[in-house]
DNA sequence: CAGTGGTCTAGACCACTAT
DNA sequence: TAGTGGTCTAGACCACTGT
């Protein structure tokens, strides 16, 4: 659809397939604009995506240097669901739905999120098995006035795909907070925690395109299986 | 210098000072371009920065909605140093330099980073005190063929400011990895770990604008004081 | 329908890097 | 000095939102 996105995908593919060698320079923006028969600004939009993703580094007066993509293996940042993440990395996984019912939002949560304490939520608890072991417990709260229900086969797979493709809801952005908390009795009961005293908790508030908050999630990870990787750029001048 | 950056800063200030109310719409891009006497594309670059920072949400056909910035208190992501972070949040802090000497790169690190095992590095160990307690230990390795030495007063303050302002080196990007590891004897000796069995470790590979790797850092955090917040956008279509 | 943001263009000038 | 990326413009057309 978009020219710049297609060009981004094409260049990315060529970098991943080593058609453009690590450390070498990409063709100049002028050359690329002639090759793809588009204006230079359109090329620059494609390059901006490569830059953001850690595929290239630009230098004024010099060119666009191809980075070693293997070095940035699994940049697992951004807003992506468990199902999408596992699928993209081709890791065998299984989801067990422990709970899926309608209830009033818990008091602590209504207070934290500053929403009406009488609002109804769909409360989900799902265990994530990787290589046969339960290493993640996800506790989701979805506002019932936005999402009527989650069919159980959806809960076992991708909720995000269901919301986006079936309900036409567009997920836009999230605030994510990473902390370490003492393991609860529930953590010990549902996960194989061994002697661990703590779990890593990723708390997410997820919003739709129209800025409505529709989901709060606590993803509770066993310490030794938690890993988060991100590619970050330095923002000069604030 | 840049028009779009100045406009970004101006709009951001107005959002932070509630001159544009949360939930309301920003003036249209056309209106803004007339107000600032610039082209629409320049306005769009400014808005792209606001979008990335979680200040607004755009909607085609509608406008740019101002988000509740208080809800995204401390988006502590990106590539920022301890000193910059603490200063920006006005938290009283103190750095104690435990080690600052030239040595050959440790074997495990040369292997991980795939660099010559004979290269020399400046090896730093610094303790970070917050509210009187040592809660973070930073272990830095800076390549000596890029950085000759780190004066001790610099190690106590901002290394990044020294590199950028004194040495003229431009820090560009980093790969950051978050994991939880068992606490070492050294962790227990240097930090107030109490009964903790683990620490959160943030491993960073930091690169310059010319794509040279110049720093590897392990930032070791006490579990109960670790917190990482990020604002993430959903990237539709891969 | 008018107004909004999303994409794209062709051209200009500037700042930086090489040689 | 020639070639690169960085910024900016004025205009065009499209897709989407509201009334």
Automatic annotation (TrEMBL), chains A, B:
It comes from the Bacteria. Keywords: DNA-binding, Repressor, Transcription, Transcription regulation. Gene3D superfamilies: Chorismate lyase-like (3.40.1410.10), Winged helix-like DNA-binding domain superfamily/Winged helix DNA-binding domain (1.10.10.10). One of its GO terms (molecular function) is DNA binding. Residues 1-69 form the HTH gntR-type domain. The keyword Ribonucleoprotein does not apply. It holds the Pfam family UTRA. One of its GO terms (biological process) is negative regulation of DNA-templated transcription. This is Trehalose operon repressor.
């Amino acid at each position: 659809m978009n020219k710049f996105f297609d060009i981004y995908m094409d260049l990315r593919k060529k970098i991943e397939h080593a058609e453009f060698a690590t450390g070498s320079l990409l063709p100049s923006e002028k050359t690329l604009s002639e090759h793809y028969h588009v204006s230079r600004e359109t090329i620059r939009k494609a390059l901006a995506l490569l830059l953001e993703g850690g595929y290239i580094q630009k230098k004024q007066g010099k060119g666009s240097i191809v980075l070693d993509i293997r070095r940035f293996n699994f940049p697992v940042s951004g807003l992506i669901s468990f199902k999408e993440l596992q699928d993209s990395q081709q890791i065998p996984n299984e989801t067990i739905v422990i709970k899926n019912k309608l209830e009033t939002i818990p008091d602590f949560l209504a207070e934290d999120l500053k929403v009406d304490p009488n609002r109804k939520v769909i409360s989900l608890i799902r265990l994530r098995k990787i290589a046969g072991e339960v290493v993640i417990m996800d506790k989701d709260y979805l506002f019932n006035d936005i999402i009527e229900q989650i069919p159980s086969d959806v809960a076992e797979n991708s909720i995000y795909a269901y919301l986006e493709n079936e309900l036409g809801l567009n997920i836009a952005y999230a605030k994510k907070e990473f902390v370490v908390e003492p393991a609860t009795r529930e953590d010990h009961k549902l996960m194989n925690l061994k002697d661990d005293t703590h779990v890593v908790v990723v708390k997410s508030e997820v919003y739709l395109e129209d800025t409505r908050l529709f989901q709060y999630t606590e993803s509770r990870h066993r310490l030794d299986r938690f890993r988060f990787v991100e590619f970050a750029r330095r923002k000069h001048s604030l």
